Amino acid sequence: MIFMGIRKDKLKYMFNDIKIGPVTFHMYGLMIAIGFAAALMMCLKRGKKRGLNEDIIYGIFFCAIFGGMIGCRLLYYIVEIPEILKDPSILWNFKNGYVVYGGIIGGALTSLIYCRVKKERFLPYFDLVMPAVSFAQGFGRLGCFFAGCCYGRETDAWYGITFHNSSFAPNGVKLIPTQLISAAGDFIICALLLWFASKRPKTGRVAAAYLVLYGIGRFAVEFLRNDYRGSVGVLSTSQLISIGAVIGGIVLYFAAPKLAGVGNVAEEKSVG
Length: 272
Fold this sequence. Notes:
By secondary structure, this protein is mostly helical.
């Protein structure tokens, strides 16, 4: 059986590190790097068309990476407090333990602070970057697929993926490819946000749409995953945060015109 041009009995060579001659490609890191680069290029191209400050875009990009890395690790610590109390060595285990929602929150907060320091309106840049964030997340999930993390439940379905050399997923068992499902969802969200942005909605509503769409998608995919992610009652930690993201997105969608107006007034006063 052929899968993406590769025989199914050769799929085991797709995962983890890929060697081409003397060069070894660490696919998770490579996909992350491609996602970051593609997101930056998308923001620069779209930002130029919208007359946004290129220096501010670069600043937001690097602040978002810095804040995102801290945020995804910090949220992991918060979720894992009971386990950390039992085994403090978890604090220094950087092989895993990164929560996507923490990265989104951390990146957004540091970007907001950066815009405040630079006396720039945040919402126009928030709208600009969120389609690119979704695009980068898609590549990140492809990286998860190659590494075997964020794996799905066992299945006998034809679309099941079997890992053979993963340090994260159970090997030799057919699993739902939740990484590929998430990646496809992220790319679709990016396309929808770009289409929505082309309609020139009120400032802040593209970002609001991201929160709603990603929150719904993530909530649904969580039912298919089987890796440990923490839980709050019957919901996973990410599902609980997803509910908050959807609510926050709805609130931002309807509050955006007022928030944008406040930003405009503040900007006019500062210019005068």
